[in-house]
Amino acid sequence: MTAFAPDSLVLNRKLPLWYQVSQSLRASILGRAPDASLRLPTEEQLAGHYGVSVLTMRQALKELEGEGLISRHRRRGTFIEPGARRGAPVRLLGSVDAIVAQQSGERTTILGHERTAVSGELLEHFPDTSELVTYRRLRHDSVSGEPTNWAENAVRTELAESIDLADLERFPMTKVLRDLVGVKISRITDTVEARLADPETAALLQVPLLSPILYYTGVTYDDEGRVVDVARIRYRGDRFSFTVTVDAH
Asked: What pLDDT, on a 0 to 100 scale, did the predictor assign at position 87?
């Protein structure tokens, strides 16, 4: 059994530190290796890893404990719950790390990928190119095996050349582009709306035709202001909820 190793995190001072730490640690827990230890490092070790105070670390751990992802035992330590791979409410707080965290922890099946012409709603995002590579993926709950959402990602062809399909089975597209391909992501614009399940979505998500779903669009920009990826994700309406927190400062 290997030791549990949390991912690194670049802190954004405009967002609550405890929230950023909890979301980064949450992503590490949900995306951990199958043979990873369930025992977490001590509060002091985790605080040193993330570069925050022990008080901030305790607040982050309290959040994860409230989600049922970890349990804390006096004198014994903090442990990951064995079933900590289930779905949880999706919360968008404006952090790329938060988005990565929310998309982690599910089993992913690649449905296919192909070069496609730029058309329809993608035209406004990619005015400087005529062709993209579209990836289609189906995500399942790691415990129940039920489908939770399916995603289409339209990515620039020059970036797609560096994408390994095996990585897309393990990580969200945002993480692959940023951490493995090397794209410097500046921002992601998210839109969520209610829709009805079309025949393809109903079949993939195993829900009745025309049943309510959540349709998410995420437009990812690099540091030059170019759109590098447009994600369109259909979530089962009975499995997810969205909470948006707006920082007024």
From this structure: 46
